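Below is how a single chain appears once it has passed through the pipeline. First comes the sequence as given, then the structure the pipeline wrote out for it. We keep one example in the README because the format questions we get most often are answered faster by looking than by reading.
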Amino acid sequence: MSHVADPDRYNSTTRHRRTGRLGLGLPVLSLGYCHNFRDDMPFETRCEIALRAFGLGITRHNLANNYGPPYGSAEIHFGRLTTQDLALRRDER
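Resulting structure:
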């Protein structure tokens, strides 16, 4: 079953700023996975963190290939979350 996010999450007070020549709007607030998605944390906890952020309208997720430990685990776990719980929402906005 896929995650059901708050339908008003994009109507929240989340602020965006324009950047670059094209004026891409990026949220002022993002969620970093440096310490949140390592291997020694239960998958359910990682899901709760990411899905809560998504439900609040946070659409920018900071991943890097050296986030862990071990290196790369944040990308692996977020990919798993994306395919399992957020697959239906990938191109929602």
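The mean pLDDT is 82.

See the next section for the split statistics.
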